[in-house]
Amino acid sequence: MKEFGRMKRILFATSLLVGATLCGGTSTAMAQQPKHQTVTINAKSMSVKQFFAEVKKQTGLNFIYSTDLAAKLPHITVNATNRPLRQVLDEVMNKVNCRYEIEGNIVTITRRMAGERVRNVSGVVTDESGEPLIGVSVCIDDSKVCTITDSKGFYTLKVPANACTLKFSYLGMSNAELRLGSGRAPLSRNIQMVTDNQLSDVVVTGYQEISKPKMTGSVTTITSAKLDERYTTNIMNNLEGRVAGLSTYNGKMTIRGTSSLYAETTPLLVVDGVPVEGNIDDLNPYDIESVNILKDAAANLTVYEKKNVDYADNFYMTPEQQVDTEAKYWDYYFFHNDGEVADPIGTTAQSISMGTQAVTPIEYAYYQRAKGEISEEELQNQLASFKKNNYAKEYADAVYKQRVMQQYNLSLRGRSDKFTNNLTINYKYDNSGLINHFANQFNAQYKGSYNVAKWLTASMTINGIYSKSKEVGYDNNSYYSDIWKQPAYMPFYNADGSVKGQHYWYDGNDYMTFGSPFEDLSSNPVDEYYNNTQVTRRQYMRYHGDLLFKIIDGLTANAQFVYETNHNTVEWNATQDSHVMRTMRNAYYYQSADGTIKNYVPTTGGLLRTTNSDGRYWTARGQLNYAKTFGKHDIMAIAGLEFRETKLTGSKALMLGYDDQLQTSSTHTIDFGTLSTMNYSPLFLGASGGFPASQFVFDPYIKEGMGVVPETHHKYASGYFNLTYTYDEKYNVFGSFRKDYADVYGLNTKFRGTPLWSVGAGWLIHNEDFMKDIKWVNFLKLRASYGVTGNIYQGATSYMTATSGELNQYTNLPYGTIESPANPNLKWEQSRTTNIGIDFGLLDNRLRGSIDYYNKVAKDVFSYRTLDPTTGFTSMFVNMASMRNRGIELQITYDWLRGASRKNWSWTTNFTMSHNSNIVTDVENPSNSASQLIERPYVKGKPSSALWSYRFAGISDQEGEKGQSLFYIEDGGKSHSATGKSISILEYSGQSEPKVIMGMDNSVRWNGFSFSILMAYYGGHMMRALAHNETFSSTWSTAIASYFLNAWTPEHPTDIPGIGRYASTATGSETTYSNNAIHHADFLKIRNIVLGYDFPQEWFRGTGINRLSLRFQIDNPKYLWVANDVHVDPETLGLRNPSSYIFGLNISF
């Protein structure tokens, strides 16, 4: 934590220094108030336009005036040498009978009317979220008497004393009007403008910006104002309920269903128009100006990806002028179930003597009673005492703590005529809710541009991220970190108040000792969180350079280069006293030739395992852009080349006998060759055949800590072209073609690249003459598109793959294993998408939205194909499967109330709905048994998320298998074991992915207060939950599930497997995948409730504060409704996620 403290101080000092530089880098006019400025102008017969230009040259002030007005004004003579600016302006304006107003660096010029009676009106213009809007045009009625808002959204204007209307207009916002009554007293009037979602949205795709009326594809845009309405730890979660067709169910993000059986489904991340390798979690939410979700081929062919181009997320980054401080707190709630285990005397005695099993206090008490060592009364007294224990609660009190998440953000902006500078610094901290755990991250980004010349603009972005996290380290027997791995009646504390060491599996028990030289293997759950830790450090840098050349009118050239580095260091440190090291030392004790006991590993010190990985990625792009309007013809075209390379390398290092304080180790003294061939311990647990040292020590602790991180190195290239043509602002046609190359499939050169294309058309119906008289239709567009997109599966390669480096345990010679055969005909997966949609804006755009129908057919999908075993392989990956997704999407927004000012009510509802039908249309399933089909559930005619289940046949009452679950097998028979039976015994139980997704977001504002509530519905799918799994008839027991309170006995026959003496002698996966564990998974939830307050801006006039707001948010309140009758949360398959409470403070300067 000390290094983070130093870093915070350094970053704070840096931010102040850069902030001062940014502010000091603006023009002189911004740094010096007009009343202190002087000008020198000496001219005869000068036009007012020349006068304004000269003043701007000397002061940096910008003049706003009507060109008609300037043309009518007489020429003037000016004699001013080093005179105050205001004196000169007063003199000149009097000569031409005009008046002026200065706000910041803007001077507004208007005609002075003879004898006019005027009054002053001023106020602040904001967007829906309360952010000030800069540059809003404010005009009196339809006249040319106008002004614009300054950097704080403030305006002032002299208006006639009689009644009039102020009209407000701003790009991307619906026009607003403010009616003023007659009077002469000064007025203060604030106004809130709302986003025009139809007419003015600009979609930022991978390579260009295009207005929504010209788009023929399906795109959803979420602005920063909408993102700012609620806080989420993940940007993608902030999109839920706002994008029709988007699913975040169970943490898996999909749009319009799944189109691949095995390929990765993470979205393509495009930042400022260029694909990047960073994580979505790396994005600072305060840097995001907008998110564009591109769904179909016509939208998506402006980007390509080696992951998944069925959809892409484009983030346009623009730092905000604000400082945000947010802290997030939530509580964990724990539940437990009490249970008991019955007697058997033989296995308990064996476990005590051999030390191969843990023995619970109840088992030992029954053992003593059976041996006659205690009376029945003493047994019952012990049982009564055990019932008072609550292991889970005491564990939670000792290990868990209140989870706190904090986030701080500082943004600075500076601008002059040639420069723009933006700096954003973000810090996040999470204590993870566990002792000795934390995660924090610094994220700093600079973004600037410089107008080098009229024909050249240079831009640069530098983004740096440093993160550090700490968590419990790996342990092959990590039961101590699981709250449910001990029976509920197990004591957590010793009689003296110290934490009791717990035994698990081969760790022995409380009633025996291993004897010298072996060490006790009990685990203190609290100490292990400090003795076994893993620290992860990450350093990520992204450099983005962009040159924009303005060649001729309408033609520009763009050159971009992005370079990314990602360095990760993972240090796993198990101290000398950790359970890991005690197990390792016990495993490798041996008796030397002279009879002395020695150890193959150091008997002092711990383990330090370090894994370093370095990723280096670059993208280079050259592009020509053409945009021109010829009368009724509008053309937009782009063409370019893009090259991309990704490379990941890494190494591992292991030190044993490591002392962190002395910084020493004894790794050089170890004979790793001997350890690698030792399957069982020479001495430890010798009575039971020896401890499996290779499986539980050498492989997970030693072998995995040495060697290299497998290198992945790929190159990609693309050539692309697209054209958008619009005629008379009514008819759009679109065409796109690109060819992408990747080195993943290279044996057959014709499959290294794949051509991708799309076409689309749009009809702006509202611009037709026959629609002019239909005033309630503001926007109406019909669009259609068809195209082909591609996808690469990184898990497949056309080359033969093999592993090497293993040593034969008998010959001690290296050997290799061929994992997959060569397949020169592997190629890209492809999706062919047809999309038909309608965009509309009705009733003064009060009702707006879109309706889409799509049909997405995936071809050449990777799947397994059965091979002749004589080839040496039973199956291989080939392009032979196909899938189809078909559905509809509806997205509607309605403004119930529109508040023109802060004191008016506003109420907006956004509703999204989608229905998707997913079918595997062709696939070969090589499954020969029921268990294999459950593992690979892909069957022709069924969804890709199909659930297959064993058919439950009740509980057996036959001797030898009483209390055991039975399942139907072939010919109507019943059996306890069914995993190896044919696939015909299984039944189809529905699909696990939702068919129907709905979201509804309601936002209400009044007088600075805001209230919003987001609801989500997922339906049409099934889940596996509360499976009645059997318990093995051994002495080992964890926390007992509550359903065993109703367990089968001869006197109480039920559908719950037996326990104790009726427990199963052999357990499989049948009960987990039984059809009696299938339940409906439909649910309706409130995702979050947000209450906020924006303080009146008038309170901070002159303080430099633009906005001050507070926010309180509740996430994950109790679900409103679930379809299942077992009260299970379908998203967790158990208890619901705990509610979280967020407090936020937002200050904008």
TrEMBL record:
<keyword id="KW-0472">Membrane</keyword>
<protein>
    <submittedName>
        <fullName>TonB-dependent receptor</fullName>
    </submittedName>
</protein>
<keyword id="KW-1134">Transmembrane beta strand</keyword>
<keyword id="KW-0813">Transport</keyword>
<dbReference type="GO" id="GO:0009279">
    <property type="term" value="C:cell outer membrane"/>
</dbReference>
<feature type="signal peptide">
    <location>
        <begin position="1"/>
        <end position="31"/>
    </location>
</feature>
<comment type="similarity">
    <text>Belongs to the TonB-dependent receptor family.</text>
</comment>
<dbReference type="InterPro" id="IPR008969">
    <property type="entry name" value="CarboxyPept-like_regulatory"/>
</dbReference>
<dbReference type="Pfam" id="PF00593">
    <property type="entry name" value="TonB_dep_Rec_b-barrel"/>
</dbReference>
<dbReference type="Pfam" id="PF07715">
    <property type="entry name" value="Plug"/>
</dbReference>
<dbReference type="InterPro" id="IPR012910">
    <property type="entry name" value="Plug_dom"/>
</dbReference>
<keyword id="KW-0812">Transmembrane</keyword>
<dbReference type="InterPro" id="IPR036942">
    <property type="entry name" value="Beta-barrel_TonB_sf"/>
</dbReference>
<dbReference type="InterPro" id="IPR037066">
    <property type="entry name" value="Plug_dom_sf"/>
</dbReference>
<keyword id="KW-0798">TonB box</keyword>
<keyword id="KW-0675">Receptor</keyword>
<feature type="domain" description="TonB-dependent receptor-like beta-barrel">
    <location>
        <begin position="494"/>
        <end position="981"/>
    </location>
</feature>
<dbReference type="InterPro" id="IPR000531">
    <property type="entry name" value="Beta-barrel_TonB"/>
</dbReference>
<keyword id="KW-0732">Signal</keyword>
<keyword id="KW-0998">Cell outer membrane</keyword>
<feature type="domain" description="TonB-dependent receptor plug">
    <location>
        <begin position="214"/>
        <end position="300"/>
    </location>
</feature>
<dbReference type="Pfam" id="PF13715">
    <property type="entry name" value="CarbopepD_reg_2"/>
</dbReference>
<dbReference type="InterPro" id="IPR039426">
    <property type="entry name" value="TonB-dep_rcpt-like"/>
</dbReference>
